[in-house]
Amino acid sequence: MRGMNKINYHKAQFLLSVADLKQLPPDEGAEVAIVGRSNAGKSSVLNQLTHNKTLSRVSKTPGRTEHINLFTLTTKHRMADLPGFGYAKVPNLTQEKWRTLVGRYLETRECLRGVILVMDIRHPLKDTDQQFLAFANECHFPVHILLNKSDKLSFQQIKKTLHQVEKIILPSEDFISLQIFSAKSGVGVKELGSKLDEWFA
Length: 201
Known about the structure:
This protein is α/β, with parallel strands linked by helices. The protein has helices at 42-50, 92-108, 127-139, 155-169, 189-200; strands spanning 13-18, 30-36, 68-72, 77-81, 112-120, 143-148, 176-180. Helix content is 33%, strand content 21%.
């Protein structure tokens, strides 16, 4: 997009962690949220995007993120790391609390420009992923899917999975976009940055 001011994602800084929407910063400027199943690699994606291995805590135990974590990019732009979903070992009551927190955030946050949905490319479009996409459609916010951990598959496997996912999301391509990503190798970082720049513009 010509004339668009690009954001330096390497300057991202942790802002605060909230367990209640009342604790969020003022609903102004622009935010992009990142969400996904608890073992999809959300934290690693954020760390790769920002070139900061310690920005978002990477836990060896999926399901540890129970709050919305906010990161500043500029005075007017933020990223929101939402609690992971779909981890079976997390108590049902805790899962319901997370769903309520995330659902209310997505429904009410006026400054939200879009959501990055991280999936493990080896296990894409699980039931919880598809439920989230249906919810996004109802709430009318755009979603950009990252098929993460592409370093785990061969080129042919990546191509096959990409085709399968594209075929499924085709009816909703007006609000869903898709790309290959690897938080380990950095594949897809520039493309992700371009998508974020588009949303933040």
